[in-house]
Amino acid sequence: MTFKFDKLYRLGAWGAAACMVAICTLIALQVTFRLVDALLVLVGLSRLGMSITGVSEIASYLLVGATFLGLAYTFVHHAHIRVTLLITRLPSAIRVWFEVFCLIIALAISLMLSYGLIGLARESVQYNDVSSGFVSIPLWIPQLVLATSVGLLCLALAEALFMALRIAIRDPASFREASAPDESEGH
């Protein structure tokens, strides 16, 4: 299957990677500051007391971003775990309709989640909700990342559903189970 919005899904994956790099950078800086303080105390000097306020809270929001921003990319590149023990034993003509059914269910759940997340972000903007940690982060920011990520997953699911329906209607016997892309495909 070739996804037309693959560049959008890749953008989400790059966002997830950027979140991971930011987490690593924050944690490395925090550890470095503590090491410098420990070394200064060891040689008899006073601590500098440098630290990043709210690093745990910021890292947790970045981890959520890293997890959700990669959803659509991992779906279109067949990296999600799928239990296909029963489905693989069915003929292609029946298997494609199971795929359509599963995609409809996944899309419906993802659309409901996306709708709820958009509503949650709207409420956070309306009531000026901020996090309760050391750093007052407006909650609409991580909520908007979640809503965008699930929206990308909805787009990927809709695109996969459209392709599966086209195969199911035109030539169900030609349906092949999606597998991880080969290195030869240039991904």
From TrEMBL:
GO terms for molecular function: transmembrane transporter activity. Residues 44-165 form the Tripartite ATP-independent periplasmic transporters DctQ component domain. The chain crosses the membrane at residues 12-33, 58-76, 96-120, 140-165. It comes from Vreelandella titanicae. The complex comprises the extracytoplasmic solute receptor protein and the two transmembrane proteins. Belongs to the TRAP transporter small permease family. Part of the tripartite ATP-independent periplasmic (TRAP) transport system. This is TRAP transporter small permease protein. GO terms for biological process: C4-dicarboxylate transport. It comes from the Bacteria. It holds the Pfam family DctQ.
